[in-house]
Structure formats: structure tokens, C-alpha cells
Amino acid sequence: MSQISLTFPDGNQRNYDAGVTPADVAASIATSLAKKAISATVNGAHWDMQWPITENASIAINTMKDDAAALELVRHDLAHIMARAVQEIWPDVKVTIGPVINNGWYYDFDRKAPFTPEDLGLIEKKMKEIINLRDEVRTEVWDRDRAVQHYKDSNEPFKVELIESIPGSDPIRMYWHGHWQDLCRGPHLQNTGQVPADGFKLMSVAGAYWRGDSAREQLQRIYGVAFLNKEALKAHLNMLEEAAKRDHRKLGREMDLFHMQEEAPGQIFWHPNGWKIYTTLQDYMRRQQERGGYVEVNTPQVVDRKLWEASGHWEKYQENMFIVEVDEEHAREKAVNALKPMNCPCHVQVYNQGLKSYRDLPLRMAEFGSCNRYEPSGALHGIMRVRGFTQDDAHIFCREDQIEAETKKFIEFLSAIYKDLGFENFAIKFSDRPDTRSGSDEVWDKAEGALKSATEAAGYEFELNPGEGAFYGPKLEFVLTDAIGRDWQCGTLQVDFVLPERLDANYIGEDGAKHRPVMLHRAVLGSFERFIGILIESFAGRLPFWLAPRQVVVAAIVSDADEYCREVAAALRAKGIRAELDLRNEKINYKVREHSVGKVPVILACGMKEVEDKSVSVRRLGEKQTSVVSLDAIIETLTTESKAPDLA
RNA sequence: GCUGCUGUAGCUCAGUGGUAGAGCGCACCCUUGGUAAGGGUGAGGCCGGGAGUUCAAUCCUCCCCAGCAGCACCA
Which ipTM was obtained for this model? Predict the structure, then answer.
């Protein structure tokens, strides 16, 4: 048998027979290592202890101390252990797939009766039993036909379909956790006992489509989270609890920002406090847009279907549109309108008024455009995903050769705003050409190239979403993350070659001939509603002073100080600071607690001492310490703090 | 839209086949208290909507609506 040379992390090399497994290698070093090993890293690849190594390679033996490898294996083995547990309890349940995800894993099952929360408890108990059995994990590569036959014999149709979709050149690998067998590419632990029995928890069960296809069977997906020990699991569950506390729906109620009700699903009733955030943010955006060279317009909400037919929305987007039919008494036919789901067609109408010259380009046309979309009921989520919302929308009409410069300018514009609003970090996703698209490959090449090089020139990296572009052009998406790690697309920039064509937008070039402009659809916040939701969660309700709906509460400690409190509040209001009075017949402790819970950034408490000194006792949100400062000083301080970042 | 769960006072939630309860909040009274809940009294509910079973439904069944989790969707 031929020999191969394995190089260890410390640089040492040893020779082994070709086909040696990491288990053999570990055993050759120390029996204790062989026992506690969980996997190997061979030439950078995560390697099962049972897989043979046939060539010279670098090798590292992983133990539970190697967090990344250990977490992946633990979660992956738990997926198998859970599937085994489920089939041991309910032998007729069909298994499908069970990958590792963030913080844990899931496994999709086909079973008629739904899993109940009690079932999850049963499964968890069974899983712990399996772990305690310390069953050996074993693997074999099978012949494709044998694997298919096996799963046909054992009546596992989803597995048959999986095998048939594995490319012909790939091996079909089987794994056994004890007696229980599953198709799996591996790697896995050496035995089930290597899984920490107190480091995991089954979290929830929900429907999920087979292969992510809503036309296919709906399966039941059980989610679990897993960590290397009890403490880490506890920390994770704790984090989830903390995240739930900053849910914008909860804080929206507590801070009296908005509400929603059955009669208007997916639409927001803004209360005074919430609307103050909204208008403050809008005022800020308006100033930024003016500086950024945009002109602002406003266009109709209810627009005849003729325009939507021309734009292509009627054909491609109708099921997401609110259709408004009007029987006009004296009209000969029924007028059919739609609430605008997007602003772009209306903006082209504005653009098309009068002849445009190449000298007018780029023309950046902005609108705080109120849109309505009939979103699927299951998609609605607080104020983050709604049916009525306002975009900070703009369309840049430009020449093809201006795409790159405009894109770069936009990314810089957006990142400055995100920074002002407290988001230093955001992800950029780049979606390139989909299979069905309009426009020539040559034009797509140019547009994709322009977006990519503009992103790089602005100093950002992007993640590629292959084939996810719109049919009319490639796009950039700017993504922020909420309190529990869910991503929300906020900003976007989409190149559009199609709409100017469909709505016949043009400009007169230097050559005196008509040319077609390109449109860049772009938004920074995306929608005010979603963005405010993210702001609330990101700051856990403790908005920066300039955005806080209630900035100051002036609270009397004794009622003899009421008159002075009125003076203080009036003085602050004269400086444009949002100050409220609390002269209620309550103790200062009570008032402090209530306004702290209400996330008011500054409480100014006044008793007789303050009345006499013309001072205030300042308590900042989140600080236990108070300080007494003069009225003049606090007015000056808070006046400065109340300025929006662009005015400071 | 799909699967599952949920819907009782403004909020958070108990509860029962014989039309309801707590805490907080709210109102009033007492209390003027120095930085995260002072005390008392009281008001407040078509038990999400509709139909059915029943002598009787908030409770059981069916349909609808809305919310929650996940999936799909987000051109």
C-alpha cells in the first residue's frame, strides 16, 4: 500500500498508509485524543473521522474545544438524533432534510397530524435517551441504485427524490446513528454521546414547503437551538428574551407611538408620539435630499388602470394592487383605478412634461411617496411589513454612462444618512441578471459592471445574489438587521432600462436626436414605517434625543414647585424642545419610574430647592445619577442636543 | 397565500356549558412625598364576527376576520 504524508498544525509531518482515516491518525497519537476527537480538518475541509485520506494533506484533529467545528457537528448530529427520535415515537413519519442553521438546526417531516408543543417535549426526552445511549455513528458510501431502492423499500419518497437530484458524479453517502439511517453528506460526530445533552432545546414547529416550493407538499418543520453547554444555551435563550423586549410592536404600545386594528390590516394609526418621530425623520430626509441635488415632487394616489397597463404593472403586479372601481353616475363606462403601489410611473409622467435636454440629466426626482400594496396576509409584520407605507423614493433619470457616478454618489449619500441615524454597519447585496429579463446582454454587462465598480469605488463590499435582479435591471439592496437578527431590506438602487421605454421617456442629446434615459429607482430608508420599526428596535426605544418624541418631562416634586415647572417647560419649548409637564399628585419616584419606562431621555425634577436656585435636577434615561444644574445651563445643553445631526 | 397556534377590561393575563375575574392603567379622595411603583374607593367587558348543537354557549362544532411563529412572497 502506498504511503502519504500528513502535516499537523505544528508543522510536524508523519507518513501513513493511503486511505488512513482521521480516527486512525488520532489513535496513532494518543488513545485519549482518539476518544475525544470529533472530526478533522483536512486541507481546510471539515472531515469525518471515518473518511479515508488518500493524498498528502494537512490535517488537524478537532475536539469539542474547536468551537466552530464542534457547533456545526453538534447541531448536525442533533438534526439526525431528532429525526431518529421522531421516527422511533411515530414510525410512520417521513423524513426529508435537516440542515444546520444559525444557532441550531431544523428538520422537515411529513406527518398528517400536527406536532404539538407536548410532542416537542416527548421528542426532546427521546433525544436525550438517544444521546445517553452513546450509539456509534457509522458511514458508508452507497451505490446510487441501492440507495434509491432502499428508500423505495422503506417508503421514504422524499429521500428518493433527493437522491435523484444529487448530481451523478457525487457519492451517495449514508450515515447511521445507532440503528437509525439517514442520507447525509456528513461529517458527523463519532457517537451520539458526544452531543451535550443539556445544550439544546426544541423551539417551535411551523409549516415549510418541500424544497421551498409553495406548489409542493407542505411539511412540518421543527426548529431547535444548540450550544456546547448549558450556559451558552441559557445565554442564547436570555438573548431572545431581551430581543423580545425591544420588539417594536411592544415598544410602540408602551411608548404610545401607533396602533393597528382589524379594520385596516397592514396599515398604521400613528399616535402623536409616533408621528413626531416620523415627521422629524422626514424633515431630516428632506434637508438631505435638497443637499443631495434632488427635486421633490408629489403625485396622485389613485391612478387609472391605463397608466398601470402602460407601465406593465397591470400585467405583472396586479395581484398586489388595491383596485378601486368607481361607478361614475354620468360616465358611460366604469372607471377602474388602482392605488399606486409604486411611484415610478407617476414620476415618468412628471419627467415627460416638456422636452428634456441632455443638460437636464441627471435629473433626480424625489417623492415621499405614499404607496399601497396588497401584501399577502402572512407577510404582514407590525410596521415593518405593511400594506400602506411611504417610501423616501426617488428616480434618477440619467444617461447610461452616468449610472456608475450616480450609483457611487448614492451609496455615499445613503451611508452618510445611515451613519447619522446610528447604523454604522449595513450589508450590500448585489442582484444580477435573472433568467427572464428584458434588454440585451450587452446592456446588462454595462449596468452590472457600473453597479459593481461604483460599490467598490465607494469602499464597500457586496454579497452576490445571483439571478435575483429585477427583469428590468440589476439592483443593489442595503440591508439592516433587527433585534433578533432578522434582516430587513431598507435602501435599494435598481437600474431600469424598461420603464423609460414603456412610458416613452426621452431627452434630446447633444446630437439633436431623441435618446432614451435610464432610470435609477432608489430609496435610502426604504419606507418610513419599516425604518422607524428598525430604529425603535435598534435603540430599544431609547431614541437619540433629536428623534425622541418626548424629549423632556419636567416633574414637580412638591406642588409648590408647579409654577416654576411651568416656567421651565415653557422656556424649553421656546427653544423648540419637546417638553412635557408632570404636575400630578404623585411621588417623584413614581414619576421617574413611569417616564423611564416611557423612554423619555431627560427628566427634570424640581422641588423647592430648585425653585429657590433657579435650577433643575437632571436625570438622564438609563443613569441613576442625577445632577443639579442651572436652568440657563440645561436650556443651552438641551438646545444643542436637540439639533438633528445635519444641523448640529 | 400555506401550516400550526391565539383572540376575555386600555395593557398583561386567569377562568367556567348556567352571560365573568386579577394585576397594572384610568377616575375620585387622602397623602406634598427628593429620583424606578404611598394608601383608599370606584368606573370599566356583545368574552373578535356569523351560523349551528343545547333548555342554556364566552366555553362544544363549522365558517369568516384579525394577530403571532415559520414557510412562500417582497416585481
Answer: 0.94
Reported pTM: 0.92
The single residue listed with the C-alpha cell 408543543 is: A117
Is there contact between A97 and strand B, defined as CB under 7 Å from any strand atom? no
Query: What pLDDT score does A241 carry?
Result: 86
Q: Is the CB of A317 under 7 A from strand B?
A: yes
The CA–CA distances, whole Å, from A571 to A546, A565, A639 equal 18, 10, 11
Pairwise CA distance, residues A177 & A73, whole Å: 13
With contact defined as beta carbons under 8 Å apart, do A464 and A432 qualify?
Answer: yes
What integer pLDDT is reported at residue A244 of this predicted model? Answer: 87
Of A237, A236, A250, A238, the closest CA to residue A537 belongs to: A250
* Among the listed residues A356, A349, A352, the one whose alpha carbon sits nearest the alpha carbon of residue A507: A356
Give me the half-sphere count of Cα atoms (radius 13 Å) on the Cβ side of residue A647.
Answer: 13
Q: Among A87, A391, A402, A494, which one carries the catalytic annotation? A: A391
Using the predicted structure, report yes or no on whether residue A434 has a pLDDT greater than 90. Answer: no
DSSP A199: S
DSSP A193: G
pLDDT single digits (tens) A143-154: 999 999 999 999
Instruction: Count Cβ atoms below 10 Å from residue A10 Cβ, excluding itself.
Output: 6
- Rounded to an integer, what is the distance from CA A33 to the centroid of its chain? 41
Is the C-beta atom of A267 closer than 7 angstroms to strand B?
Answer: no
Say if residues A467 and A432 touch (Cβ distance below 8 Å).
yes
Q: Comparing C-alpha atoms, which of A253, A283, A284, A273 is closest to residue A550?
A: A273
Is A588 within 8 Å of A576 (Cβ atoms)?
Answer: no
Residue A299's SS3 state is coil
Q: Among the options A177, A221, A373, A452, which is catalytic?
A: A373
To the query of whether residue A184 is one of the catalytic residues in this protein, the response is no
Find the Å distance, CA of residue A197 to C1' of nucleotide B7.
37
Catalytic residue among A48, A77, A344, A522: A344
In the annotation, is A391 catalytic?
Answer: yes
Nucleotides of B under 7 A from a protein CB: 1-5, 7, 11-12, 29-38, 65-75
What's the CA angle centered on A319, arms A382 and A480, to 5 degrees?
35
A612 has pLDDT over 90: yes
Express each pLDDT in A170-210 by its tens digit: 889 999 999 999 999 989 999 999 999 999 999 999 999 99
CA distance A288 to A522: 14
First to last CA, chain A: 76
